[in-house]
Specification:
The structure is a homodimer. Chain A has two domains: about 10-120, Arc Repressor Mutant, subunit A (Orthogonal Bundle); about 125-160. Helices cover about 70% and strands about 10% of the residues of chain A. Chain A has helices at about 10-35, 35-50, 55-60, 65-75, 100-120, 125-140, 145-160; strands spanning about 50-55, 80-85, 95. Chains A, B: GO terms for molecular function: DNA binding; DNA-binding transcription factor activity.
Amino acid sequence: MDKPFKNERLTYKLNIVAQQAITANDAIFFQETGCHIRDLRVLRLIDDTPGTTFAEIAKITGFERSLTSRILQNLIGSRLITRENSTEDARVFLLFTTGKGKEVRQVARRLSDRLEVILTDPLSSQELRALNEILERLGNWVTSEDYSQALDREVNKASG
Amino acid sequence: MDKPFKNERLTYKLNIVAQQAITANDAIFFQETGCHIRDLRVLRLIDDTPGTTFAEIAKITGFERSLTSRILQNLIGSRLITRENSTEDARVFLLFTTGKGKEVRQVARRLSDRLEVILTDPLSSQELRALNEILERLGNWVTSEDYSQALDREVNKASG
DNA sequence: TCATTTAGTTGCAATTTGAGATTATCTGGT
DNA sequence: ACCAGATAATCTCAAATTGCAACTAAATGA
């Protein structure tokens, strides 16, 4: 009858839910597609913008260049994407999904739909909408410059 | 004008918000108290249940025993908690917060309050209540046996 | 043509963490 | 009383992850 949390903080609750959901989902994605969520995200980006580049991917995802490089190497090794030299700049290469890559992307998409249904099972459709809306707003907030500044002010106030 | 996410999945949104909030908060907690969130959680547990044991902490937090051991060593090293041998079983030791530990806990508590105010700045009080309620429910769900089983069924259906 | 900048890769080292061995202690059966 | 497990907690070691910085290759521009 233990609740996982009682009066806990919002961040704590967020963390529990995010952590549990992601860990469980990631294992399933890996089992069903051979890819981890992070790789699938890159695959999706490439599939949505064929001919995108290494630098674009690194910029959009925010991953380190070395990490980006390794993820792309994995995807290429699994024959999910191909690289083609740019005709304009031989340092640059363009990324495309293979047929297999497109298939995996679809499998992942459908799986993701089903997993999200399971995750949100205890919520009414109204609650689900509300949650999406609120998280959207919070997501914008926590990634904003204003948020960092608000935190900075708080810290300076405390120690100053 | 880039939104951090558009049509993204719930888990993705959750992850962004949780990750950003936790990373930012953890740095501030460390700066202001010398402890990371994880350590503070253990400190809080001990302060709330004086005389609790290693095994209890490991069970409640779900941390590995080796990790739990290291966290306790840190807290002892920082003089925030003390260990006392159990009179009943010499293998067991009982944990207590020191005066300094209680102080740090209070500092952390107040800081946590303020950080949560900042985090939820863009939400109305009604939305905040709704979010808390929904996350509570989701937290219970994702840590339940039923959730794992629902995922198992989904996977078996897919591959079977 | 040479110096500088840019694209992407790779080697290396720091960090984190978990599994399993290890030590110390307890409990129960004979 | 003694021995054979069980149990509490620690510690060692090895695997995985990741970032930094050095590196190669190609472009740019003076």
